[in-house]
Design brief:
Layout lengths: L6 H9 L11 H42 L2 H6 L1 E11 L9 E6 L1 H8 L2 H7 L3 E14 L2 E14 L2 E17 L2 E11 L14 H4 L5
Parallel strand pairs: 1-6
Antiparallel strand pairs: 1-2, 3-4, 4-5, 5-6
């Protein structure tokens, strides 16, 4: 028979319920653990809201910089290997016909510095990028889907110049969100939305599996 001072007895006592050490937990201890989990969940959700706000701000400035002619600031919003992939048609001698892809900051700068585009855009356009924006964040990467509307002023007033569906990829680089890829397709071409997740906002706040 084991004696009270036998080390094996003390070992069993220390382990508690199947070695977890939790056999003697009080209701207060369990509530404390639940509260800690709730706080951690709240922190994660707050971090997501902050990330979403920064991404919305990024897309808001995207339009401001184009419309006001801040070309360097617009280019700086992209990652070094950022890419703009679009299918479009030339209108009034401005833009491009067919499928185009501008990759890297040099090509993106040439896009925004195009003389015909600048004449149309600067001081006479509204590039709205975050209509119906839905974002899914996974650490330092994020994917978003939105509608894009460009409005221009001409002799007939302000008119819709183009409308499109957009898939975005974002990356957090050195603490700042940047655009990694923009895939834009005209209305009626939903190919940019083929991977749009059918999830609720509540589920989107959960950690990605």
């Amino acid at each position: 028979m084991l004696k009270a001072q036998d080390p094996q007895v003390h070992d069993l006592d220390d382990r508690g319920d199947e070695g977890t050490g939790r056999a003697c937990d009080t209701p207060g201890d369990l509530q404390h653990d639940m509260a800690r989990d709730d706080i951690e969940d709240l922190r994660r959700r707050m971090a997501q809201l902050e990330d979403e706000r920064e991404i919305r701000y990024l897309l808001g400035r995207y339009g401001h910089y184009v419309d006001l002619g801040y070309q360097d600031a617009w280019v700086d919003q992209w990652s070094d290997h950022g890419a703009y992939d679009l299918v479009t048609v030339k209108r009034d001698g401005v833009g491009y016909d067919g499928a185009m892809r501008f990759e890297g900051k040099d090509q993106l700068r040439s896009l925004v510095q195009d003389p015909a585009a600048r004449k149309l855009a600067e001081g006479g356009s509204l590039h709205i990028q975050d209509v119906n924006l839905v974002v899914r964040i996974d650490g330092d990467d994020a994917c978003g889907h939105s509608y894009s509307i460009t409005m221009v002023r001409n002799g007939k007033g302000v008119q819709i110049y183009s409308a499109a569906m957009v898939r975005w990829r974002f990356q957090r680089i050195e603490g700042r969100w940047r655009i990694a890829e923009k895939i834009q397709r005209e209305v009626g071409d939903g190919s940019a939305f083929t991977d749009a997740p059918a999830i609720t906002a509540f589920d989107a706040a959960k950690p990605a599996v």
